[in-house]
């Protein structure tokens, strides 16, 4: 999970049951598009920006998730470049990287941690 | 104050030099001016002949129009230098401008050498050097039908092809007794000659021209041997002459036979004056290739920008060349002609048009050069052995005869510092280091770790050999594993799924794999399960490849294209109107595809279920244009309409398309049916193609028009419809069962031991005794077909998956279109920064 200096503000997005298992969805959080993945086979949740840093298209939530040497990742559906869901680093040897966000589950609701809401839209 | 750097010549080398100066920060230090004689900025002369077909200088330019300005370099076009004053140190241009310099770089290149025979100045004689030359050639060619090219070297043969492409009778006239006399020996030339002649170019060797025929305009060539060639136009490509006249007149020293003399640091005899590229004479050599010029440009720019540091010197260049001439592979390297003491080994196969020669050192231990014609696959391996001066295996002929076995390859003996990837400067040692550290154990990983193989890709075969050799040395079994999560090949996974009745990815990875899977193994298992059970693929949505997951093709902007099935390309006016109406309703861009269907592009994700609903209601179904599945069956109108058609190809194409629709395979599959041998449906460019004969149908397999176009090969002739379908059933299922992931039928057939003869034995003679089960499996797939779009249209739960946001009904606000030719298209992706290497 992402560590930030400040404690993030937690924004509720949807209920757990709305998320496909081992798949992703896109949520609108204060004007930003955030891809959220329910990595059920690892029993983990991840979130990152929805934007492919290479083409600028809003598609990462539609990518396939998996792992490489145990590191959880998502493969961009445009050209299959993989990004670590933990750090956002590109794992296909490119210089691109993506922003990641912390996810928190409470009482069946999925929350995304945003540093300062309202300023990023 | 900045020093003044003047570059004479804005060709490929002059431009590269300017680029390198900018890259090394030289524009901080120098005020740079570059002069060009042509009216346009530097362009790619190596690919000049492409101008014949695309007529676009834009695609040839080496830099964007504002590159010079952006980089603070002053560019003067149509303004050549007319003299250089080496005492007061200034250049005078044709416009009378005086340009003082501290450093002067001559990159004036070369001009076409025109032999001096009588009448060479007649109207209709051209040289082949600049875009302006090509424009003159094209304009004059309109009035002629027969054209000769003088010169059988690289450029001459290229020009001859361009002539052929213009629809003219094409002749090549060469003074020497062979083609490409500087690169090829007699035997190689003769193989190349017959290949080129079979394409329609006529070759005349040993021809010394006496004079040109005709009054004012050129009418042909009169040769010293008494023969005559009647043609109406002549393109001279007989070699180059260095453009050294400026130097000569300014007291800069030139060689006896031309070319500006330079030392290892590219300096001329005048202080602060340098020469690079085709005008430079280094150690008696003038290089008529761009690569050595680029190398000189790089070295000189480095030296000028890094004073005080160690300078680089130019050690001469290797003259290796590999190219595809009129569709024929030709490669030559090192001492190809065996001009020093040597031991030659040659292999000729006139049937296939292949010639290979190795020039070995006298003791047979080292490779000194070689020639490959017709099949140059071994080139990069051989070049590596040559450049690294490696000791050869005991039977060096194994390098060119047959397929060299991996075990016996000479790469074990390559020194660790041998350069493997020249694009990214990666040595064998770098590769071994990456493999031994455990950071990578396959080609993909090796590319990521080392960058090797990510440039031109020419070194990938060597990377593979080194990788496999090293893995074997470590005692690892080298197999075609799907990926790190499964230690099985696709074929093995297929058998596992079938025998154990595995129906989900989760079950497969839990019982036979490790980890969480990835974008490689998930779709592979999804395809296997679909090929065995044919369940609606939306059931396993999250393991489907992007396009299968959304049952449409993802395109720029993250929008989708929708392609309804139009079997055999036959469609009623009413249905055509319906497609138009639906396209209009959703504002979709329309295009006829190469497979006789209609592509509807620009659909937003949340529109997909509605578009499908409208299409399904009107009787359309999914065309599976998105899947690794059976796609289209193209057809001509056949005997129904065509005056040549001998069978009803449209009806048969529709039957074939409906039979195999939606079937999942290791790769996409395409087919076509032609109604006669004229082949208007291009059936031999398909995975399986059918061509009508007077007696029935000929079935061809293993073709495609993809990255490596292949003609399909005849499997069986004169079949009746039922037998033809039966054979296709067997062929497709055998392919689906045994091919590796993402391997098309052409590559699969090539890798199949025994090739087409073996395949015939399996499919026609039931050699493996599996035909009954293949047919049953196919019948099962055909019988369980469901339109995947309809599956979504009928299920509101599935439609929910097509919302862009989980928590909002909005569509993606970042998707933007612009108008082009009356329809919309997505805006371009952001341009990458200009990266110079």
Question: How is this structure best described in words?
Answer:
The complex is a heterodimer of chains A (121) and B (837). Chain A has one domain (18-113): 3-layer Sandwich (Rieske Iron-sulfur Protein). In chain A, 0% of the residues lie in helices and 44% in strands. Chain A has strands at 9-15, 23-29, 32-39, 44-49, 64-68, 71-75, 82-84, 100-101, 103-106, 109-114. The model of chain A is unreliable at 117-121 (pLDDT under 50). Helices cover 30% and strands 20% of the residues of chain B. In chain B, helix 7 (186-198) links the parallel strand 11 and strand 12. In chain B, helix 1 (12-23) packs parallel to helix 9 (290-305), helix 14 (490-500) crosses helix 16 (521-533) and helix 22 crosses helix 25 (771-783). Chain B is globular and about 90 Å long. The A-B interface holds A 13-14, 18-23, 25-28, 33, 36, 39, 41-42, 51, 55-59, 62-70, 72-73, 75, 77-78, 80, 82, 91-93 and B 447-449, 451, 454, 484-485, 506, 515-519, 521-523, 541-543, 545-546, 549-550, 554, 556-558, 801, 804-808, 810, 812, 814-815, 829-830. Chain B: Residues 320-383 form the NADH-rubredoxin oxidoreductase C-terminal domain.
């Amino acid at each position: 999970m992402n560590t930030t200096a400040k404690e993030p503000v937690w924004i509720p997005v949807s209920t757990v049951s709305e998320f496909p298992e081992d798949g992703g969805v896109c949520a609108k959080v204060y004007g930003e598009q955030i891809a959220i993945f329910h990595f059920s086979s690892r029993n983990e949740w991840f979130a990152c920006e929805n934007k492919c840093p290479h083409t600028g298209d809003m598609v990462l939530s539609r990518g396939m998730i998996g792992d490489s040497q145990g590191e959880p990742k998502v493969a961009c559906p445009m050209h299959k470049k993989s990004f670590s869901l933990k750090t956002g680093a590109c794992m296909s040897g490119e210089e691109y990287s993506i922003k990641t966000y912390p996810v928190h589950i409470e009482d069946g609701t999925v929350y995304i941690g945003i540093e300062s809401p309202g300023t990023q839209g | 104050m900045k020093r003044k750097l003047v570059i004479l010549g804005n060709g490929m080398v002059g431009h590269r030099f300017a680029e390198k100066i900018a890259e090394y920060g030289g524009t901080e230090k120098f005020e740079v001016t570059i002069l060009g004689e042509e009216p346009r900025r530097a362009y790619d002369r190596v690919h000049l002949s492409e101008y014949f077909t695309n007529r676009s200088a834009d695609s040839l330019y080496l830099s964007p129009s504002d590159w010079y300005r952006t980089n603070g370099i002053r560019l003067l076009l149509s303004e050549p230098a007319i003299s250089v004053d080496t005492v007061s140190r200034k250049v005078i241009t044709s416009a009378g401008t005086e340009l003082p310099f501290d450093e002067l770089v001559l990159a004036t290149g070369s001009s076409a050498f025109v032999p001096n025979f009588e009448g060479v100045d007649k109207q209709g004689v051209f040289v082949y050097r600049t875009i302006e030359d090509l424009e003159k050639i094209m304009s004059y060619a309109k009035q002629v039908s027969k054209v000769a090219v003088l010169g059988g070297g690289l450029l001459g043969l290229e020009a001859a092809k361009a002539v052929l492409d213009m629809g003219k009778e094409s002749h090549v006239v060469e003074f020497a007794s062979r083609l490409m006399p500087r690169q090829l020996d007699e035997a190689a030339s003769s193989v190349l000659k017959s290949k080129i002649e079979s394409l329609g170019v006529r070759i005349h060797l040993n021809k010394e021209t006496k004079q040109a025929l005709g009054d004012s305009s050129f009418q042909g060539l009169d040769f010293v041997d008494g023969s005559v060639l009647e043609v109406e136009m002549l393109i001279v490509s007989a070699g180059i002459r260095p453009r050294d006249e400026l130097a000569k007149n300014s007291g800069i020293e030139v060689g006896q036979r031309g070319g500006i003399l330079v030392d290892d640091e590219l300096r001329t005899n005048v202080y602060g004056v340098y020469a690079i590229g085709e005008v430079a004479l280094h150690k008696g050599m003038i290089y008529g290739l761009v690569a050595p010029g680029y190398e000189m440009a790089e070295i000189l720019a480095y030296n000028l920008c890094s004073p005080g540091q160690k300078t680089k010197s130019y050690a001469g260049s290797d003259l290796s060349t590999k190219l595809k001439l009129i569709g024929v592979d030709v490669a030559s390297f090192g001492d190809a002609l065996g001009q020093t003491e040597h031991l030659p080994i040659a292999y000729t196969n006139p049937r296939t048009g292949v010639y290979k020669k190795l020039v070995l050192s006298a003791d047979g231990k080292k490779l000194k050069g070689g020639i490959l014609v017709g099949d140059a696959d071994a080139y990069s391996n051989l070049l590596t052995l040559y450049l690294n001066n490696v000791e050869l295996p005991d039977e060096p002929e194994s390098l060119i005869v047959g397929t060299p076995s991996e075990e016996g390859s000479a790469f074990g003996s390559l020194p660790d510092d041998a350069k493997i990837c020249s694009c990214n400067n990666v040595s064998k040692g770098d590769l071994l280091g990456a493999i031994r550290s455990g950071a990578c154990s396959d080609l993909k990983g090796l590319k990521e770790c080392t960058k090797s193989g990510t440039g031109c890709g020419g070194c990938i075969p060597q990377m593979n050999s080194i990788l496999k050799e090293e893995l074997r040395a470590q005692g690892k079994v080298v197999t075609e594993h799907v990926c790190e999560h499964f230690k099985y090949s696709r074929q093995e996974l297929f058998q596992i799924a079938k025998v154990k009745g595995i129906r989900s990815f989760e079950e497969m990875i839990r019982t036979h794999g490790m980890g969480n899977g990835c974008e490689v193994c998930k779709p592979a298992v999804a395809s296997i399960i679909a090929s065995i059970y044919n369940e609606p693929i939306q059931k396993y949505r999250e393991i489907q490849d992007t396009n299968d997951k959304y049952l449409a093709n993802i395109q720029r902007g993250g929008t989708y294209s929708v392609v309804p099935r139009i079997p055999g390309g036959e469609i009623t006016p009413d249905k055509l109107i319906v497609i138009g109406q639906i396209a209009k309703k959703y504002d979709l861009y329309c295009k006829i595809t190469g497979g006789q269907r209609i592509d509807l592009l620009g659909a937003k994700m949340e529109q997909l279920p509605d578009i499908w609903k409208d299409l399904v209601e009107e009787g359309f179904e999914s065309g599976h244009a998105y899947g690794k599945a059976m796609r289209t069956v193209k057809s001509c109108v056949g005997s129904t309409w065509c005056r040549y058609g001998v069978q009803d190809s449209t009806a048969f194409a529709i039957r074939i398309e409906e039979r195999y629709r939606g079937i999942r395979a290791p790769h996409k599959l395409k087919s076509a049916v032609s109604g006669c041998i004229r082949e208007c449906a291009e059936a031999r460019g398909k995975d399986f193609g059918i061509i009508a004969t007077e007696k029935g149908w000929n079935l061809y397999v293993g073709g495609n028009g993809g990255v490596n176009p292949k003609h399909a090969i005849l499997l069986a002739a004169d079949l009746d419809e039922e037998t033809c379908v039966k054979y296709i059933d067997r062929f497709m299922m055998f392919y689906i069962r045994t091919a590796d992931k993402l391997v098309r039928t052409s590559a699969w057939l090539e890798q199949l031991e025994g090739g087409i003869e073996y395949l015939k034995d399996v499919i026609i003679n039931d050699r493996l005794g599996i035909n009954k089960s293949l047919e049953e499996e196919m019948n099962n797939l055909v019988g369980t077909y469901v339109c995947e779009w309809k599956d979504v249209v009928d299920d509101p739960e599935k439609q929910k998956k097509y919302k862009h946001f989980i928590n909002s009904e909005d569509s993606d606000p970042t998707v933007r279109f612009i108008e082009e030719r009356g329809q919309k298209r997505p805006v371009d992706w952001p341009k990458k920064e200009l990266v110079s290497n």
